[in-house]
Amino acid sequence: MKKKKYHEALYDYIKTGSQGLVVKINGRTYRFRHPTTEDVTGSNDFAKYELEKSAYLLASCLQSAGGFNVGKELRYEIVKILLQTPKFSDRVSPYFWKSLKEAQDYASFFEAFCYTAKSRNLWYDWQQATRFGFNLFAQDFPLTDLQKSWISYNQQEDKKQEIEEEWSRSFFVASSMNSKGVQKIQKEWDRKREKEKEYREKLIEEANKGEIITEEKKDEIKHEKSVDQLQKEYHDWVEGKEDLHDKAVREYKDQIQRSLENRRNLISRQIQEAREMAEQVQELNSLSIGSPIRAYTDDEVAKMTQDRQKNTISFDEGLEYAEHLSKKYLQSPRLPGQSMPSLQEQIQNRPAPKIER
Amino acid sequence: MTLNLSQLKELMSPLTQVCQKEKVVDIVGTNVTIKYLTPKEELEVQKLLPSLDEGITAVEFADVFRRETLARSIVKVDDLDLRGISEIETGEILPNGKAVSISKEEAVVQVMDGWSKHLISKLFEHYGVLSEEIEQNLDDTLKLNVTDEDTEKANLQSRIDNLERAEKLANLDFGEHEEEEVP
User: Fold this and answer.
1) Residues 27..56 of B with a Cβ closer than 8 Å to A: which?
2) How distant, in Å, are the alpha carbons of A64, A136, B5, B85 from that of A75?
């Protein structure tokens, strides 16, 4: 079976609410989503034995049977059916957990996915759908942690874009008033933006290679450390003391915890960056507040220009200025034996002309 | 569209049918139909098993396990259909005129008390074969979007273990009943 690319998988997980295992029996398809922490807690609350826990989880996560959506209200009935069906839960549960494990592996690419155009396009679709009262996530269960993190990230990204636009406006105003002060901020701003762009591109590049991106890997990308400094994560567990369900649940919880932590870090970084950007825009604005833009009066203009030498270009009445220029530069005869001065030489030290009609 | 219970059951039927299989075993002229235990029934058996701390021997443990499993597995003996029956009348009548009833499982255990251990262990072997038949059914019909070699190996290993366990349980018995032939 062809392995999905990280961005395809994450796109599907976010859009479908983490659809995971798909089981086909004699032409009928049963689709299961990944469990939420509430499902896992519920399975432990429901029963002591693994068989019952597995049946509960499968029942909770059954999204559709034969193309029909299965509502929450039928969950208990499904548990009963599964507890009356030999072997099914036993046979399918390991794959259910495997599918979840795969999803968790893909979730390590969450940050890289957020930086892709695919993610942003899905975000615009989602916003559009929400604006018109549609539900892009056709799911009858609460938003998953992955979806929540994705929404938070994109909200912050939007905020950063707004600040960028505000920056451009402020830059325009401030640069005309205090160019030296603005230059310093501009350089700092550009440096940060360039660094962020490089970081994002590298992260996507790493994700495209299919390598799992750990926090250490991200640090390496940020700080440009050598590959040797990367440390792999190994998770050992005590064998033989737990059943499949307990093992899977523990691993699930650990992974969820790690993923949540990573996503929280990403979002808090986004918030921090947005805050810093806003501060810089404020600083930029304060530079122009000291000398705000205002129109000069005629007297002020006359005073400013009174001592300057006036260069007057005279041309025949009725002759257009364009024609005058054409005559002077294009149609004038070339003088032999004289080297033509370059345009740079011609305009060097030339005072600004004053045109009088 | 909101599904109701009967619609749900219909939609789930391909899944339940593949896993529910019965097997008719001829035991010295008696046709005994066995089914594979549901997870619910497996749990009942699990809860009834004596603790190893109770100083019980391997043979005694195997006896309880086979007896309780088969008590739930046997669904028909010749023409006596036990499907859907939870209680069976013993034929005795209480002084108040009420018929004495016992659970279906208890009734089957009482019937099995008259069978030799060898016969029971052979029937249990058929139960192991039935288990493997269902697994093969699932091999043929179950299609998943996830593949995992480790899980597949574990599943095959567990099936081998089941067959070996059934064989081991059979071998725990005495040799004196070898004259009884079970097809």
Assistant:
1) 36-40, 42-43, 46
2) 12, 24, 11, 27
For residues A157 and A151, give the distance between their C-alpha atoms in angstroms, rounded to a whole number: 10
Q: Is residue A186 part of a domain?
A: no
Asked whether residue A353 is assigned to any structural domain, the reply reads no
Residue in B with minimal Cα distance to A94: B151
**Do B43 and A78 make contact, defined as CB atoms within 8 angstroms?**
no
Cβ neighbours of B104 (radius 10 Å): 19
**Looking at the complex, does the CB of residue A82 fall below 8 Å from at least one CB of chain B?**
yes
User: In this complex, do A83 and B40 lie within 8 Å of one another by their Cβ atoms?
Assistant: yes
> How many angstroms separate the CA atoms of A70 and A81, rounded?
14
Would you give per-residue pLDDT tens digits along chain B (183 residues)? 678 889 999 999 999 999 989 999 988 888 999 999 999 999 899 888 887 677 777 778 888 888 999 999 999 989 989 988 889 888 889 999 899 999 999 999 988 888 888 888 888 889 988 999 999 999 999 999 888 888 888 889 888 887 777 676 666 554 444 444 444
On chain B, the residues whose CB falls within 8 A of the CB of A30 are 15
Backbone φ, ψ for residue A213 (5° rounding): -95, 105
Which chain A residues touch B36 with a CB distance below 8 Å?
A: 86-87
Domains in chain A, number: 1
Domain extent, residue A62, equals 6-114
Contact, A230 vs A220, CB < 8 A?
A: yes
Does this model's pTM top 0.95? My answer is: no
Amino acid identity at A98: K
Alpha-carbon span A256 to A41, nearest angstrom: 13
* Among the partner residues B1, B2, B15, nearest to A85 by beta-carbon distance: B15
Contact B162, B69 (CB under 8 A): no
Chain A positions in Cβ-Cβ contact with residue B2 (cut-off 8 Å)? 71, 73
Q: Is residue A181 part of a domain?
A: no
Minimal-distance CA residue of chain A relative to B21: A86
**A102: which chain B residues are within 8 Å (Cβ-Cβ)?**
146
Q: Which residues of A touch B8 (CB under 8 A)?
A: 65, 70, 74, 77-78, 81
> Do the chains contact at A95 and B46, CB–CB below 8 Å?
no
Domain presence at residue A274: no
CA distances from B82 to B16, B79, B115 (A): 20, 9, 18
> 3-state DSSP call for residue A22?
strand
Sequence letter at residue A206: E
| HEC assignment per residue over A147-184 | HHHHHHHHHHHHHHHHHHHHHHHHHHHHHHHCHHHHHH
Q: Is A28 exposed, middle or buried (0-12, 13-18, 19+ CB in 10 A)?
A: middle
Is B146–A98 a contact, with Cβ atoms under 8 angstroms apart? yes
